[in-house]
Specification:
There is one protein chain. The protein is α/β, with parallel strands linked by helices. The protein has three domains: 64 residues, Arc Repressor Mutant, subunit A; 143 residues, Aspartate Aminotransferase, domain 1 (Alpha-Beta Complex), CATH 3.90.1150; 241 residues, Aspartate Aminotransferase, domain 2 (3-Layer(aba) Sandwich). Strands 3, 4, 5, 6, 7, 8, 9, 10 and 11 form a nine-stranded mixed sheet that branches. The chain has a four-stranded antiparallel sheet with strand order 12-13-15-14, covered by helices on one side. Keywords: Aminotransferase, DNA-binding, Pyridoxal phosphate, Transcription, Transcription regulation, Transferase.
Amino acid sequence: MTLYQDLADRTEKLIADGVLRPGDRLPSVRQACKRHEVSPVTVTQAYHLLESRGLIEARPKSGYFVRARLGHRLPEPGMSRPVEGSTALQVSDFIFQILDSVRDPAIVPLGSSFPGPELYPLGKLGRFLAGAARRTTPLSTLTGLPPGNDELRRQIALRYLAQGAVVPPQEIVVTSGALEGINLCLQALTRPGDLIAVESPTFYAGLQASERLGLKVVEIPSHPREGVSLGALAEALSRHPVKACLFMLNFANPTGSRVSDENKRALLELLRRHQVPLIEDDVYAELHFGREAPLATKALDADGLVLHVSSFSKCLAPGYRVGWVAAGRHAKEIQRQKLSTSLATAIPLQIALADYMKHGGFDSHLRQLRCQLARQEATLVAGIERHFPAGIRLARPEGGYFLWLELPARVDALRLHQDALAQGISIAPGPIFSAKREFRHYLRLNFGHPATSRQDDALAALGSLIARHGAASG
């Protein structure tokens, strides 16, 4: 642990123990240097880390102060309770109708699924891409065919190794984004009419992919902090012929939930007993706010049952559409599916990303990105507490860039969505995250864009709309 992390942790414990209380002023940088016998750089880094955790705030010309832990005044939503039984999917038209309405760049993107592009080193990536294009040869157009560029897959395997998982490059298939990876996994594991298990709520893209393949889903209750219910999943596996599970275990979209390390182990043991593969959509794992990355399920996967899907879209290169599947025992089948559908992922993009991972400072970028997202989460929560009416429930994530809110039961999120759009504000209404269009009074908000006064004005307007809808329905 570095000196600044140690100083930050000791200060955080003082706050947790009540020695330092909300509103207390922290020692100045000079005072802290003298007290702890460290450099000004160390103190500054420690204070910035505490800021990113939402524990302290800088006040102009006054110093650093302990802040109240935002969101503690708002209770969190409870465990979801989806209607039991399997569902034949008819969601795509409904979802497209919602999503088509939020593409206007003039709209405040609280309902967006994407982070702000200004958070990413796109200029630096562009220089690597230009170099990769110059070096692309007729031979590299062949070596980049599935399973993908050798060096890129080696770099991805090294990321797994750093997380305690031994994943051979031969098991990794490069895809055109995580969504293609999910589609390939579903195609490899299922046939039309088969049943898969998904969380409730779940990311709508997985529902759309399942509908396109003619699959049915059984929705498993999940908690907005702890993730999928293992008890409910065990019951579903004993009652239904589930062919695969499609879950997000780290900072799920839309809830932000994270399955604990202990529950990940229990989940994989449950799936091993039933010999049911797990398709893990894990695009947010690098966006953790804490010091440690979540436990990698591939580190626990002794039987090759985990098809781990991720991409660079959320952590490094939005718009590049480069992802991968670490497919375990199903790697050959995924490779064949890739060849027969899209043939290959763009070769220069693969080369550029491999070069960046070797020479571009990937970990340094990730540290900055995590701190920035943590600050933006704290800012958005503060805006919700200022502007939204009573009766809101809020799930606080430990990573990613989404907030899941439960509104008063009288508020219809679909009507709220339409009225918010009329005022230039997008939100993601709860029903698009459910096969049965449940979560009528829930919504997802995006804190992946840098906070601005325009965003705060949008939150104030949205809070007024929620209050008005609640009053009108009462």
